Amino acid sequence: MAQAEFSSLRINDENQVVFTAQAEAPSFNRYSTGFLSKPTEKTLEQLSFFPEELLLLPNSQSLQIQNRFGLFRTGSDFTGTQPVERSGSFIQGGEIQIGKIDPMIASPDGLWIAYVKPTSPAFGNLVLLNLETQKETVISNRVERDLNHPEVVWSPKSDFFVYHKGNSLFYLSIEQHNQNRMLSESYRRIGAGQMSNIRWGRGNELYYITGSLVYQILGVEFFTRSLYQEFLKIGRIVGKIPFSFDPSFDRFWISPDGSQILLDKGGRNIYLYFLQNNDYTSTGSTIELPYLYLPRNSRVDQVIWSSAGVITLLTKGIAQGSISTSLYTLDVSQPRDSYSFEGLTDQGVRSIQLSPQEDTAAVVYADRVELKSYPAWETQHRISHPDPLKTLFVTNSQLIIAGSRITELVNPAAGTSRVLFLSQIARIGFGSRGEGIRALGPDGRAWEWDGETQTWIALNSEEAGTQAASLDAAEQAFLAEPQVASDSYRVYLEQQASGRYRNMIMLRNVASVGTVPLFNPPKTRFEAFPDRDEPRSPEIFQHGSRIRRRELSLVFNAVDSVEGLAVILNTLAEYGLRGTFFLNGEFMERHPGAVREIADSGHEIGSLFSIYFDMSDSRYQITEQFIKQGLARNEDTFFEITGRELSLLWHAPYYVTNPTILKAGQAMNYQYVGRDVDSLDWVPKRDETGISRLYYPSAELVESVLSRKKPGSILSLRVGKPGDDRPDGGRDDYLFNKLDILLNNILEAGYSVVPVSTLIDNAQ
User: Fold this and answer.
1) Which of 68, 64, 155 shows the shortest CA–CA distance to 110?
2) What are the recorded GO MF terms, alphabetically (predicted)?
3) Average pLDDT for 526-538
């Protein structure tokens, strides 16, 4: 369970209380944050800020930091970090978030924040917060939550933003909002699509793809064209692509001058096209356009595109269970008859960023940041940094390096740097000779807090000595012995039986003889266990114990296509969870690389038989020998691909059962695994009769699954596109793209996600 835990609790004679809080963060693992409380003044202050999300606000020369403890902004010199009012930060009485955090998206001018305030597991109200007046306005209700992509995309000038609701895109004008003449939502509709259908250009124009057409929409056109949307197409056609755009799998980027489009088709096919609205006739020579074919386990993570016409792509994926990255570059700065992508040799790149003058690229590695000339890609400066995560250029000569330990402002040419804030505090306390608040980083480095300047100062070598070999040694050298009592108060940790926090910090007032929590306890409670267990079939394991543990299993059935598998594997890796995959023989023969990747990622793998058909069909005679041969063939196929053995777990296609099927599996020591929660994500939108009566959008499937889950549940999901073999197959959206929403809600309810075999063991 992803519970927060408090530790390193101390109090001094001045009644200052310091402590740390550890929390799990998908993609970042577990990190620790430091706090200072002054009970006599009833204040709580945060002393470190892990940069889960980091944004530079150029107008105010400040930073916005978001993590599971809240939303914060620095002053104009990047110091004095404070929580944003009405943002629900922990030190303002909010709760520490579990799982991925709901994004709070600031306008480029820093004056507004748009976010979706959850009202149910998969939906919420889109809220616009004016930071000058602190006024919140609900812009739209029942908007789908999205933890992977921004739910709002601001225009560069902060005068518009676009959001997604249902299967439509809408805009909002800040001018109309300020003048209280905002149109009703139906008149602000741009067209069908999702957030991947749109992208803002540098000139404040919006590019929108629908079908195979690329539209350009100017801000002044929003009002007129949306008002007469029944008669006028929104925007001007500026180009076409040779495919129909699928927002569930496709993405695009526009060149700075708006003349070219980079299209990511299906997550692995990368094309560059020159935008022109008249492609019926052409003159001149034929141009060979560039194409890049990515492995299925890779996805484009970042794109930098200079005004001169040089593109660099950073791709990320999972290879042999670990994150793998690659860089590719494409130069379209000069007209020529052919263009091609070139691979760069850099390995282990975490992120890339282009400088304001576009002549330097910051490249982040695990232990350093390199500044490379762009586009020549020659290293100009190497900056050592402990575990950097990302960079932000402040000017062409200054950049911020945000890491898991410290975040600093660096001027490589001048050879200067300044620590802006600590990203983590592993342990906290007070100086051994009466000094103020001191902290230790995860590497044992010691720091002292300057309350006047609101900054951390590294302890120099004369005072601090060399870096300690361990946290225990550093604590002994730099921190006073733990003290939990003063003349006025005593503090202690109290374990919690259930809830988001594993323990609570309690404050006992010696004078008034009263004990209270140091901060607000979480309002969110874990789900209660049922009153009694439910019977289980000895032949079909459909669920685990309902009363022993708050745990469940996620089962992924791989039948034919491989779409969505990379998303599933990446999401499970981000959360550090193991799923159970059932693989069909036909899937394994079609996608051996995918099978190896599932196995290398450490997931449990069972059998979905060698061929996929309905065993209940009266046209077929199913015998025990046939079942045994199919299971054995699947074992051999899996071993040939991976060199490993399948788990002795299986279920038949479509979860069909009868005495013959069950008896044959038992004879081969297989446990038949059923399910008690069918997600219905395998239902395509259309069937032979038209719109399927079982079809629901993915957000509604999330809510349905969560309403039916119980302790011990087995939740079944589908890999791939259902109905992919039919022209009218597929869905408007896919549940695997909302797997993080599902996992967040499961974890918030107090559940652990375990493989089916663990569920079986714990039910014994």
Assistant:
1) 64
2) hydrolase activity, acting on carbon-nitrogen (but not peptide) bonds
3) 90
